[in-house]
Amino acid sequence: MRILLKKIKQLATPTGSMLKKGKDMSQITVMKDVDVYIENGRFKEIGHGIKPDIQGENGENIEEIDCSDLVATPGIIDPHTHIPFAGERHREFYLRQKGKSYIEILKEGGGIINTTKAVRAASEDQLIRQNLEYAMEMFSKGVVVFEGKSGYGLDIESEIKQIRVLCEMEKLLPQKIVKTFLGPHALAPEFDTYDSYMEFIVENMLPLVYEEFGGDIFADIFCEKGVFDIRQSEKYLEKAFELGFKIKMHADEIEYTGGSVLAASHGAKSADHLIAIETEGINALAESDTVAVMLPGTSFFLGKPFAPARRLIDSGAAVAVASDFNPGSCTFNDPHFIAHLASSQLKMSPEEILTAQTLNAAAALDISDEWGSIEVGKKCGLVLWNISDYRFVPYFPGHSIVHTVISPYIDGCHVE
Ligand code: NIG
Ligand code: FE
Question: Of all protein residues, whose CA lies closest to atom 12 belonging to ligand 1?
């Protein structure tokens, strides 16, 4: 792979390989009329008037793109989705408009359990087919990396099936997929109490999942009043960490329980949702390297308040923005619309949003050494936009403003 992007009208990117906290989220680099040369899936040279060696390493031709009318940003990273899922839940959507709450629906055996039934019944092929479509929609909008999780299986076989589906999808897609185990997403129908299901997860599921997928996998938990409490969450995170999982949490989404404090004190890479976070949690995140992941699409979809992104950033926390794409609480997977909500509802600046959807999103997935900015040596995730300025993205969702998406995997192979 050899690509020369010629005379990019405007290139906007955060820089570095670490998360950006507080005010530093606004520090982006903007360059004009700059060339970017890509070789073997990485940014090789960035500057003016680049003339790559005609021969290259393996004599491949150089594909040249005239970018004099285009804006370039790093490829978008979505650090929180619930891909893969099966089926859909439109009935609940309308029940909520009549006054039923998300937690009431879950307690009556609907919600996540509805999707669990569909996922258990689906074959791997069916799951792959349905979810490849969602992933390709996201790629066409500029998403070069996304996170996906289990959590709709709630038994060993179906949880492993979901993660295996993510591995198979990755072989077929131009995107990197970061995989997460979310066994403690709801009470599995086979168990009477959260304590007994947690015991089973800790003793059986976590070790088996780690044995099967190992290394780079995350463990996540839905820590919430009426779901898994702080004590159960702590037990889970400690076991997951001990086995070698990286950790993240669904925390303080509906009521404040201190999930954000637990995430920060256990070295979680991210604490996600945080709609109900309080000062104690904000301070804990600001003092840690745990990324606060905002999911404004979920607030919008459920008609709920929005997380206090401004307070988090102003207190010095690192904030990322993600979709939470799933069939129950957020059916949006469009990163441009999410960027729009980050501006209009979370009151983040365009520079903060760019950092939140690229470098900080990469940090939330522990891949910011390789992804999340346009810098020599990093993986070549990049979006060319048919717009005049990077600030156009949050302002103009719902239109075809993407010109080209570049990823290390567009040749159809996962170049390492
Ligand atoms: O992140 N909050 C917990 N889980 C998901 C929803 C999953 C679902 O409803 O299917 C969330 O919003
Ligand atoms: Fe979620």
Answer: 329
Task: State the pairing for strand pair 402-406/382-385.
Answer: antiparallel
Query: Per residue in 112-132, pLDDT tens?
Result: 999 999 999 999 999 999 999
Phi first, then psi: give them for residue 313, nearest 5 degrees.
Answer: -65, -45
Distance CA 189, CA 182 (A): 16
| Token output for 283 | 């301070």
Listed in order, strand segments (DSSP E) in 14-167 are: 29-39, 42-47, 63-66, 71-74, 76-78, 143-149
Helix or strand (DSSP H, E) at 57? none
Distance, in Å, from the CA atom of 122 to the CA atom of 313, rounded to the nearest integer, reads 41
For the chain, count helices (H), then strands (E): 16, 15
State the ligand closest to the CA atom of 297: 1
Nearest ligand to residue 322 Cα: 2
For tokens 């048919």, name the residue.
386
pLDDT at res. 57: 61
Whose CA is closest to 173, among 210, 200, 222, 140? 140
Q: What is the dihedral of CA 202, 204, 208, 209, to 10 degrees?
A: -50
357/373 Cα distance (integer angstroms): 10
- Give the atom of ligand 1 at the shortest distance from the alpha carbon of 298: 12
- Closest residue to atom 3 of ligand 1, CA basis: 222
pTM of the model: 0.96
pLDDT category, 410, cuts 50, 70, 90?
A: confident
Q: How far is the CA of 273 from the centre of ligand 1 (A)?
A: 10
With vertex at residue 207, the alpha carbon angle to CA 204 and CA 211, rounded to the nearest 5 degrees, is 130
- Residue 251's closest CA among 230, 235, 274? 274
Q: At what angle do helices 335-344 and 350-357 cross, to 10 degrees?
A: 140
Residue nearest to atom 6 of ligand 1 (CA): 329
Is the pLDDT assigned to residue 387 strictly greater than 90?
yes
Q: 230 CA distance to ligand 2 centroid (A)?
A: 18
Please answer whether residues 209 and 220 qualify as being in contact, where contact means their C-beta atoms are separated by less than 8 angstroms.
Answer: no
Q: Which tokens hold the place of 116?
A: 């669990």
Mean per-residue pLDDT over the chain, rounded: 95
Residue 208 in tokens: 């088996």
Confidence check: pLDDT of 168 > 50:
yes
List, chain by chain if needed, residues with CB within 6 Å of any ligand 1 atom.
Answer: 82, 111-112, 115, 222, 250, 253, 298, 324, 326-329
- 18 burial via Cβ count (<10 Å: 0-12, 13-18, 19+): middle
CA distance 53 to 33: 21
